[in-house]
């Protein structure tokens, strides 16, 4: 395996022997540090008698050969001054099969670079040939080299060192290492495309022996100056100007595309020079074709699972999460992790650590060339996807259309067949690019469409909407129209309508891009989730998850999908009355969402909430702390946000209840109060703040607080959205005040409540409140009792059970007001007992 | 001790071989080793890259260049370092030994030439190959002959030692791994024979002043256990030798090493040097290999600027970045390679490490047994202890364990558990 045997771009090819070292030095863009590092290493050998073992690791085309050549050039003075002996292995040298071969390679290198010593070395080699057994030969070869070195240290410069070790096998590697220890003044600076077992397995001699140095990819600035250097060497002032001025943006795109691979840049440089696509694609495809066999063999020797993983990531064209990889390749997670780490080690994929979630790493193909080779292999397309990408980024839509026009004309005028073919190729390529860009337009128009829909539907019904949109100059497919409509209804919480429109969407559209389809599925899933939540329907939840998961699969390029899934899981848990698994899944989805933006406040908010739910469900202090602490962080960063305060208080209140902890209740109460300050109209904050007030009062037995709580819930009665809970709280308060302080509720207050109860018309409430009134109120007078009876009469038809209650009121009047002791005995036994127990127990004394 | 006053010298952070006079620290270890060596031979064991070779090389260097502390002056120690890596079989090994010993002619006025000649004759007898079978005709035909030569050489040397009232330390680096390789290639007979010869020589010649240091990354125990179970080997090959395990550097030693590295061209801007070295000491747990790696990363990724931040960042990438996993992978490899028969054994050992990697303090044996659902935890704990993974402590008469080095614990927790 030799770097760049067939030179791609003649003079500028890195493999070419003939290139003058000064030019190489000039082209050392982005590698100055590395070069200085290696030079320093050699200096330390010469000056400090240190032994260096450095392995420079980098993919093909990253300039390893180049680096060694420059290094060799830079240390010539040391060599001439006899301060060091260098054995620079030629890259073309194949067939190092064993340790002895390796030693011979050192001889050859000596001879190649030191004409003067050649005769001497030659006689030594012929002596060597006389020696019979292998062991003796090795030993003799060692000693010749040692002799030749004399006092000087030896530096071996070798390429593809991993391959060399691989072919000489561990046993012989051991001999090499033993020799290094024996002579103790030998250094090795070598390159390799990746590290192998021979460097990182415990049972290999060179385990941990080398300092590995991974070549970094070129930065944008590096790319820029690299291209400028190329153009300068080429004496193309115009290209230099172009790069320095107009071309900057485009080169940025270029840089992202080739990921800073030197060799691909050289290819694209040709394009900058000629500005014809045909030449570019020719060069491009030639580069790929040159390299493809190499990659194919590389891939072929990988274990099947690793091949699968590699292919999957390559074709996805963007970093993938480990979990997704294992899922989609049908490999269990453990093996997938192992495969991924092997591939990383081989430098075929790159691990991107996810700062917010170290355990969930992203993986990407390390080498653009490898990706392309795989793509070419899979699609068998002439025009590779990367090339199309390049055009799409490089040209604006307008430029492309103009260009296409031009070429079409040329095409018509052209008579030469081969030229026609080239032009046709270019037209095809441009068409593909335009197609690719269409998706973008769709998205752009959607904004406008949705604006129009909102505007129109605020005043009209759906009829005529489509025409209205069209008259506003928007061309819209039926599918997109219905999708936009679905989105509108989703916003307006009309889930059934969402579903109707989604159905239409699917009906109309035949050829949807993945991205588009994914948004449809997202909408669909969310609507289902809404319905499931309302209907509390397990199956609907499942259907919803299915849609959302599918959407995410189609387009894993946005956090929204994960957010939606997270939301659904948390709603599902709520529906189940707490479901640990679902909550954990929700958290997982949030972690994924974080991978898109680790600072997203909304995700953080949701995460705190779900953590809180989980904490309550599992009654786990640590989770509770995590949840509230992360809320506190959020509150700190945005003190005026109501939602954070409210949710934090909410989780805390639930936990306080679990632990029956006074301090927590207090804290929660204050948080609710603060939230209420931010949003005085929130009856939720008002209500739950009141609940906390109640808990504090209860635990502290504080009458003033009880009264305060009572006031609060009375006040809440006049706010919109009152529900049963509010009345229940009132009842609790009344009971507690009586129990703790034997104090009865003010008559007017309770009559007021009862008339609210009547208004609210909540099933069963009136009856129980009447009993409560009789039991806990200050003693009613005739008039008041009549009032109660009137209310009963009004509702008698709807709630027949009130008849008994009416009877109770009568008995109350006779017994409590008139003092008629026998009145009780007008009640049948079970009612008498009830009356004694529930009404009289307090009202007589 | 004399080195205390030594001034730092420029040293590059490398991890291969090193000039013996530049090896840092280890004065206390050398003293302890020599105290042991006064009376007996020693077996030095520690996992890979912990600094065994440099330690014994420095010991040899100090012996031979008259730099030993006062207390050893009377012993007249000399030492010879051999590395046994790559020796194919007993024949080659012995020829190598004798070749090297020959270089010490001036010490002992012994002429090895004749011996060497007869050895060559034996080695040069050809090896036959037949149908993938490699037939070595050296052994056992010449077995007796080997023994004789070997014995003779050592007898001669020892007689000399006795006469001069001096001691010679023969350092056999990588002996266990060589035996292991022989075993894997079916040359276990060579291996067992060598062990027996060595033991016999030791017992006979130690009284005359001959000493051995066996040095290696796998314990002799692993090799012997394998021979016992597989071939019914009954020899007590090393039970008369003292065991010595190489620890990490002291803070002082780390400081000195850091000073040396810094002189090779690093920059310290503003910060308090001593506290920087202390950070490095803490992060590396004093293991010189990791100190050198931290410096190497600071060199390549941080422009050679040593600050608290760059140190921390270098440490983080060592622990987290897959490109640095090779520096820890042996923890996993060793289990897979040496303890995977039967497979459950390896699995349990990993489970134990998973469990312990999550514990920052010593954990009682009971808690470990309860914490993981595996068989024979006690045995495996002992194996891990013997193989330098763990530390043990007795508390309330109960055994407590913890992973020996924090840096290993962290790595395992993040990347394995
Ligand atoms: N005393 C020391 N002075 C300086 N550096 C040291 C010292 N000890 C260890 N090191 C560092 O650790 C590396 C490994 O040391 P050494 O070669 O002695 O380990 P080892 O235990 O013999 O390893 P192996 O089992 O792989 O042979 C050295 O290359 C060096 O970077
Ligand atoms: Mg060693």
CATH architecture of the domain at 220-438 in chain A: Orthogonal Bundle
CATH superfamily of the domain at 220-438 in chain A: Winged helix-like DNA-binding domain superfamily/Winged helix DNA-binding domain
Helical stretch tally of chain A? 40
What is the oligomeric state here? heterodimer
What is the SS-derived class of chain A? Answer: mainly alpha
Question: How many β-strand stretches of chain B?
Answer: 12
DSSP strand tally of chain A: 8
Mean pLDDT of chain A, as a whole number?
81
| CATH topology call of the largest domain in chain B | Rossmann fold
Largest interface: A-B, 55 and 52 residues
Percentage of residues in strands of chain B: 5-15%
Major β-sheet profile of chain B: 5 strands, parallel
Portion of residues in beta strands of chain A equals under 5%
The CATH class designation of the domain at 220-438 in chain A is: Mainly Alpha
Helical content band of chain A: over 70%
Low-confidence runs of chain A? 1-17, 439-444
Provide a compact summary of the structure.
Chain A is mainly alpha-helical.
List the helices and strands and how they pair.
The complex is a heterodimer of chains A (845) and B (417).
Chain A: H1 21-26, H2 32-48, E1 53-57, H3 64-74, H4 76-80, E2 85-88, H5 99-113, H6 118-130, H7 134-149, E3 154-158, H8 161-183, E4 186-192, H9 197-200, E5 211-214, H10 220-233, H11 237-244, H12 248-258, H13 262-274, H14 277-300, H15 304-316, E6 320-321, H16 322-329, H17 333-345, E7 349-352, E8 362-365, H18 368-379, H19 385-394, H20 397-413, H21 417-457, H22 465-471, H23 478-491, H24 495-508, H25 514-535, H26 538-554, H27 559-575, H28 580-596, H29 601-618, H30 621-637, H31 642-659, H32 662-678, H33 683-700, H34 703-716, H35 724-741, H36 747-760, H37 765-776, H38 782-795, H39 802-817, H40 829-843
Helix pairs in contact in A: 2-3, 5-6, 5-7, 6-7, 10-11, 10-13, 12-19, 13-14, 14-18, 15-16, 15-17, 16-17, 19-21, 20-21, 21-23, 23-24, 23-25, 24-25, 25-26, 25-27, 26-27, 27-28, 28-29, 29-30, 29-31, 30-31, 31-32, 31-33, 32-33, 33-34, 33-35, 34-35, 35-37, 36-37, 36-38, 37-39, 37-40, 38-39
Chain B: H1 27-39, E1 42-45, H2 52-64, E2 77-83, H3 90-102, H4 105-108, H5 113-124, E3 127-130, E4 133-136, H6 143-164, E5 167-173, H7 175-184, H8 188-205, E6 210-216, H9 220-231, E7 242-245, H10 251-263, E8 267-268, H11 273-284, H12 288-301, E9 305-306, H13 308-320, H14 330-338, H15 343-357, E10 363-364, H16 365-371, H17 377-386, E11 390-395, E12 398-403, H18 406-415
Parallel strand pairs in B: 1-6, 1-7, 2-5, 5-6, 8-9
Antiparallel strand pairs in B: 3-4, 10-12, 11-12
Helix pairs in contact in B: 3-5, 7-8, 10-11, 10-12, 11-12, 11-13, 12-13, 15-17, 15-18
């Amino acid at each position: 395996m030799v770097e760049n045997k067939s030179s791609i771009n003649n003079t500028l090819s890195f493999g070419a022997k003939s290139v003058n070292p000064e030019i190489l030095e000039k082209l050392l863009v982005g590698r100055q540090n590395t070069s200085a590092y290696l030079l320093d290493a050699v200096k330390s050998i010469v000056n400090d008698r240190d032994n260096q073992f450095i392995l420079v690791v980098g993919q093909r085309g990253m300039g390893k050969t180049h680096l060694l050549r420059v290094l060799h050039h830079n240390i010539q003075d040391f060599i001439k001054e006899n301060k060091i002996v260098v054995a620079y292995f030629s890259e073309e040298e194949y067939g190092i099969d064993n340790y002895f071969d390796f030693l011979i390679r050192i001889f050859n290198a000596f001879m190649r670079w030191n004409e003067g010593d050649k005769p001497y070395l030659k006689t030594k080699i012929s002596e060597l040939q006389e020696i019979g057994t292998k062991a003796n030969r090795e030993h003799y070869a060692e000693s010749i080299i040692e002799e030749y070195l004399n006092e000087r240290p030896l530096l071996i410069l070798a390429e593809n060192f991993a391959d060399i070790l691989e072919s000489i096998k561990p046993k012989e590697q051991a001999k090499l290492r033993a020799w290094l220890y024996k002579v103790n003044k030998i250094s090795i600076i070598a390159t390799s495309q990746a590290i192998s077992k021979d460097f990182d397995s415990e049972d290999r001699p060179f385990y941990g022996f080398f300092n590995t140095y991974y070549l970094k990819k070129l930065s944008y600035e590096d790319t820029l100056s690299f291209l400028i250097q190329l153009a300068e060497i080429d004496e193309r002032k115009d290209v230099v100007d172009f790069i320095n001025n107009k071309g900057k943006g485009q080169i940025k795109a270029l840089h992202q595309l080739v990921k800073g691979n030197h060799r691909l840049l050289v290819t694209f440089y040709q394009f900058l020079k000629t500005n014809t696509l045909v030449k570019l694609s020719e060069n491009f495809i030639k580069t790929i074709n040159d390299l493809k066999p190499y990659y194919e063999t590389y891939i072929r020797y990988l274990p099947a699972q690793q091949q699968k993983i590699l292919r999957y990531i390559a074709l996805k064209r963007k970093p993938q999460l480990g979990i997704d990889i294992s899922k989609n390749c049908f490999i269990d997670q453990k093996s997938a992790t192992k495969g991924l780490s092997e591939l990383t080690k081989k430098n075929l994929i790159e691990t991107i650590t996810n700062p917010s979630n170290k355990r969930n790493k992203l993986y990407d193909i390390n080498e653009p060339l490898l990706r392309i080779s795989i793509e070419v292999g899979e699609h068998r397309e002439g025009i590779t996807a990367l090339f199309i990408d390049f055009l799409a980024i490089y040209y604006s839509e307008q430029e492309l259309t103009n260009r296409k026009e031009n070429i079409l004309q040329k095409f018509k005028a052209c008579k030469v067949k081969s030229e026609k073919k080239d032009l046709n190729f270019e037209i095809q390529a441009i068409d593909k690019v335009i197609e690719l860009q269409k998706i973008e337009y769709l998205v752009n128009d959607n904004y406008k469409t949705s604006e129009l829909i909102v505007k129109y539907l605020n005043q009209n019904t759906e009829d005529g909407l489509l025409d209205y949109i069209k008259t506003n100059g928007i061309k819209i497919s039926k599918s997109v129209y219905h999708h936009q409509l679905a989105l509108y209804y989703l916003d307006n919480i009309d889930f059934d309508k969402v579903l109707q429109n989604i159905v239409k969407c699917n009906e109309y559209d035949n050829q949807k891009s993945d991205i588009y389809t994914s948004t449809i599925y997202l909408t669909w899933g969310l609507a289902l989730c809404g319905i499931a939540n309302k209907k509390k329907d397990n199956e609907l939840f499942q259907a919803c998850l299915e849609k959302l998961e599918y959407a995410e699969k189609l387009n894993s390029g946005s956090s929204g999908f994960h957010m939606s899934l997270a939301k659904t899981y948390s709603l599902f848990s709520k529906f189940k009355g707490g479901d640990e698994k679902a909550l954990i899944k929700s958290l997982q989805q949030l972690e994924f969402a974080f991978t898109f933006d680790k600072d997203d406040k909304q995700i953080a908010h949701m995460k705190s909430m779900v953590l809180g739910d989980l904490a309550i469900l599992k009654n786990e202090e640590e989770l509770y702390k995590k949840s509230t602490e992360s809320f506190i962080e959020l509150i700190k960063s945005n003190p005026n946000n109501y939602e954070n305060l409210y949710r934090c208080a909410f989780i805390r209140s639930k936990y306080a209840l679990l632990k029956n902890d006074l301090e927590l209740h207090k804290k929660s109460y204050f948080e609710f109060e603060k939230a209420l300050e931010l949003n005085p109209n929130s009856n939720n904050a008002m209500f739950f703040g009141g609940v906390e007030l109640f808990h504090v009062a209860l635990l502290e037995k504080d009458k003033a607080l009880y009264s305060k709580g009572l006031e609060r819930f009375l006040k809440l009665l006049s706010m919109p959205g009152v529900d049963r809970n509010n009345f229940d709280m009132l009842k609790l308060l009344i009971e507690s005040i009586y129990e703790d302080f034997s104090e009865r509720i003010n008559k007017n207050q309770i009559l007021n409540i009862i008339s609210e109860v009547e208004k609210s018309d909540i099933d069963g409430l009136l009856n129980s409140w009447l009993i409560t009134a009789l039991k806990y109120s200050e003693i009613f007078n005739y008039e008041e009792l009549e009032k109660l009876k009137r209310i009963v009469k009004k509702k008698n038809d709807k709630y027949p059970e009130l008849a008994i209650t009416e009877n109770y009121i009568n008995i109350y009047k006779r017994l409590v007001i008139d003092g008629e002791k026998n009145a009780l005995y007008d009640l049948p036994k079970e009612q008498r007992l009830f009356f004694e127990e529930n009404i009289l127990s307090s009202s007589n004394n | 001790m004399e080195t205390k006053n030594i001034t730092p010298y420029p040293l590059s952070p490398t991890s291969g071989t090193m000039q013996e006079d530049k090896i840092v620290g280890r004065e206390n270890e050398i003293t302890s080793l020599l105290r042991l060596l006064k009376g007996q031979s020693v077996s030095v064991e520690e996992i890979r890259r912990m600094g065994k070779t440099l330690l014994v090389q420095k010991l040899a260097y100090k012996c031979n260049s008259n730099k030993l502390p006062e207390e050893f002056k009377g012993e007249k120690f000399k030492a010879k370092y051999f590395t046994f890596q790559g020796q194919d079989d007993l024949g080659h090994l012995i020829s190598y030994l004798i070749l090297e010993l020959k270089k010490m002619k001036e010490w002992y006025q012994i002429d090895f030439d004749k011996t060497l000649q007869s050895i060559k004759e034996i080695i040069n007898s050809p090896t036959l190959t037949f149908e993938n079978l490699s037939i070595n005709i050296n052994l056992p035909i010449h077995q007796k002959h080997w023994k004789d030569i070997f014995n003779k050489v050592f007898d001669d040397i020892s007689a000399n030692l006795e006469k001069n009232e001096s001691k010679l330390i023969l350092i056999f680096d990588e002996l266990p791994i060589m035996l292991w390789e022989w075993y894997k290639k079916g040359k276990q007979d060579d291996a067992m024979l060598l062990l027996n010869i060595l033991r016999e020589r030791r017992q006979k010649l130690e009284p005359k002043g001959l000493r051995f240091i066996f040095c290696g990354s796998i314990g002799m125990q692993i090799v012997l256990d394998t021979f016992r179970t597989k071939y019914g080997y009954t020899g007590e090959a090393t039970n008369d030798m003292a065991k010595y395990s190489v620890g990490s550097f002291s803070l002082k030693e780390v400081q000195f090493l850091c000073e040396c590295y810094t002189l090779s061209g690093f920059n310290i801007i503003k910060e308090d040097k001593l506290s920087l070295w202390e950070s490095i000491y803490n992060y590396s747990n004093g293991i010189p290999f990791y100190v050198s790696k931290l410096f190497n990363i600071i060199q390549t990724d941080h422009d050679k600027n040593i600050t608290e931040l760059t140190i921390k960042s270098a440490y983080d990438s060592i622990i987290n970045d897959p490109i640095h996993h090779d520096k820890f992978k042996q923890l996993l490899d060793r289990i897979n390679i040496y303890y995977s028969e039967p497979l459950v054994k390896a699995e349990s050992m990993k489970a134990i490490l998973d469990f312990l990697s999550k514990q920052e303090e010593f954990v009682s044996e009971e808690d470990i047994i309860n914490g993981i659902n595996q068989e024979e935890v006690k045995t495996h704990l002992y194996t891990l202890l013997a193989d330098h993974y763990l530390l043990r402590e007795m508390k309330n008469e109960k055994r407590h364990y913890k992973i020996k080095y924090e840096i290993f614990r962290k790595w395992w927790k993040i990347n394995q558990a």
